[in-house]
Amino acid sequence: xxxxxxxxxxxxxxxxxxxxxxxxxxxxxxxxxxxxxxxxxxxxxxxxxxxxxxxxxxxxxxxxxxxxxxxxxxxxxxxxxxxxxxxxxxxxxxxxxxxxxxxxxxxxxxxxxxxxxxxxxxxxxxxxxxxxxxxxxxxxxxxxxxxxxxxxxxxxxxxxxxxxxxxxxxxxxxxxxxxxxxxxxxxxxxxxxxxxxxxxxxxxxxxxxxxxxxxxxxxxxxxxxxxxxxxxxxxxxxxxxxxxxxxxxxxxxxxxxxxxxxxxxxxxxxxxxxxxxxxxxxxxxxxxxxxxxxxxxxxxxxxxxxxxxxxxxxxxxxxxxxxxxxxxxxxxxxxxxxxxxxxxxxxxxxxxxxxxxxxxxxxxxxxxxxxxxxxxxxxxxxxxxxxxxxxxxxxxxxxxxxxxxxxxxxxxxxxxxxxxxxxx
Length: 424
Description:
- This protein is an all-alpha fold.
- The protein has a domain of about 170 residues.
- It is about 75% helix and about 0% strand.
- It is built from 17 helices and no strands.
């Protein structure tokens, strides 16, 4: 019996079970260095590790977020933090902040790119692709269904009842996330002042991109001055150039290239996206009317997931199912490429004394912008006593009991529908 335990005990301690491999005596199939390690009680190397687990987890998390992610980028960021930092502990708060700051510095939908970064952190490049695809796909399918209804019936199904209940809940979720992130991002008085200044200037109408890069550069310069650095390598921030003007021919290639250009150069909120869409599809190509464009943006706002799925709606209006798929691919493809290129650089930013200040500044500026957008959203979401109570209750419940935010959103949907039925 003692000899038998020496043979199978270490394998059991390393997480293996008799029967993991088929056939009798599977525990005796080990040989060579791996066998010697097992006898010595040392966990074997990568041969024993199972990778599909993290991939399945990434898929499950981002499919769920793609379904419940109402409220735009600020809400997406709050929900991602709840899932991957607080509940699953994939990474620390500071790592999450660094990825948030990096996603804000590159063009494209920042919350979608943050999701790609988180998938990369959990399961490598396959995790990046899976996280992005799973987060985008539910919204794309919903928008496709709404586009079909729009073309067939001339309107979109009403979503007022759902949004009435969901919006105040989302405000509470974002407020709780901001409170948690601020504790890690605001490390000193300078960062606190920069974050508050960004919030105030954005509410006064300042350009969010200038505020983001300005805050990052200011913190980098002040921190460098404190260290009295005598020399440092200059840092270049490369922004992709805009694409050449496309011929206004009604073709799938033109549709794809137009959305590829928009995805590669668009920073900021859905309002910035609206300006690009209007310039190309209403002004330059003449494929849409102003009314159709407004309806397309509204659909992107009322569905969960990234607002950039507005492209799916426009693609369907222009060229049916092939147009919807090509438009979606075009607008999101730059984000996949940029996220894959930028992610390996984030630890280097944190390691460099100069760039560490830049990243800290970008983090706190991004939080300032997130707080300002939340303030604006709150004005639209909290419209009466019931929605005010729902927002406050959500915040208090998250602080006190820390439940899964998905349950609170589901409760908001039920409350919204019930309110609609009662009040008519």
